[in-house]
Specification:
Layout lengths: L1 E4 L6 E5 L7 E6 L3 E6 H7 L5 H12 L6 E2 L1 H10 L5 H14 L8 E4 L11 H13 L3 E3 L10 E6 L1 H9 L9 E5 L7 H14 L3 E3 L10 H10 L3 E5 L5 H12 L4 E6 L15 E4 L2 H15 L5 H5 L1
Parallel strand pairs: 4-5, 9-10, 9-11, 11-12, 12-13
Antiparallel strand pairs: 1-2, 2-3, 3-4, 6-8, 7-8
Helix pairs in contact: 4-5, 7-10
């Protein structure tokens, strides 16, 4: 191993030597976590820090997914789909990170200057703002005797109001295993669902959700909106050019949910002008779609963990 600057966050990181003749490099970054990146993808990044990309990689490590393998092809898709969380959402993300590190209610948790990607913050200065905001709201306690928040280390614990807050925000989409599927419900496309989309999502460790496949008594429009909010990402197959699919994908984008676009090859020429800039999976058969979609989910979203796969 040797030490070089991480091309994502520019922090000193371990470079793990591999036998691919320099085409890609494997890093173990104390900020981002482990990942690999090709030399051409590094050129695209141009030695600028990408904090949301750091957070995306760290999320893979946090939830025990496979380390991302970043190529130029993948990088374009990922950068388009990375969420831009609001301050309130970053507070929830940090609370969830502290919760995952808490052995029992009342236990102190040590945090570090390099943990800022856990809250999808730009740097440690922004993380400190989030920490102090949570403290002022009475959601967390900072250990004043051992606190080193200004120098990089601090200990914290979740207060009773913080546990109530976490209960109320238990459906934060970043931690669900549901994938919302927007597609035409025409009978002709049933094999695409059964033999393409559904098995690809399940193989990747997530639960595919199509609103017409689940029993409910809600208004269908309210049900769709609620289900998209509760989903980690959305798959939008625009074959047949249904307006509802475009609406659902647009709503997901407005909520900063990643959207994976698909279309049957013979319908590619008909996709809407406003969405042509997105990279579509172009398929001929359900089996083609199954393979490509599985690879895209694993690359962009990351594989679900074992508990997700077994649920």
């Amino acid at each position: 191993m040797t030490e070089l600057k991480c091309p994502i966050c520019l922090t000193n990181a371990e470079l793990i030597l591999s036998e691919d003749f320099g085409r890609k490099k494997d890093y173990n970054c104390p900020v981002c976590g482990p990942y690999s990146i090709t030399e051409t993808a590094k050129v695209i990044l141009k030695n600028n820090p990408y904090y949301r990309l750091s957070a995306w990689i760290r999320e893979h490590h946090e939830f025990k997914r496979e380390p991302p393998k970043i190529t130029t092809y993948l990088l374009d898709d990922v950068l388009k789909n990375l969420p831009d969380y609001k301050v309130s959402e970053k507070q929830t993300l940090l609370m969830r990170a502290i919760e995952r590190r808490t052995d029992y209610p009342g236990a102190l948790v040590q945090m570090h200057t390099k943990d800022y990607p856990l809250a999808w913050t730009r740097n440690y200065e922004e993380l400190k703002f989030i920490i102090r905001s949570l403290k002022e709201r009475g959601l967390i306690y900072i250990d004043v005797h051992e606190n080193r928040i200004d120098t990089g280390f601090f200990k914290t614990k979740i207060l009773p109001d913080g546990w109530d807050y976490l209960d109320k925000h238990s459906q934060l989409p970043a931690f669900t295993n549901q994938a919302f599927v927007a597609m035409s419900f025409e009978k002709e496309l049933d094999p695409v669902w059964e033999n393409g989309i559904k098995p690809a999502v399940e193989k990747a460790g997530y639960k595919p959700h199509r609103v017409d496949k689940e029993p409910h008594i809600d208004r269908i429009d309210a049900k769709i909106i609620a289900d998209i909010k509760d989903s980690k990402f959305v798959i939008a197959d625009v074959t047949k050019q249904k307006q509802g699919v475009y609406f659902e994908a647009g709503y997901a984008l407005g909520l900063n949910r990643p959207v994976i676009w698909c279309v049957r090859e013979d319908d590619l020429k008909n996709i809407h002008f406003d969405t042509r800039q997105y990279n579509h999976i172009v398929w001929k058969t359900p089996e083609d779609l199954k393979e490509e979609l599985y690879n895209r989910i694993c690359a962009i979203i990351g594989r679900g963990n074992k508990s997700q796969e077994e649920s």
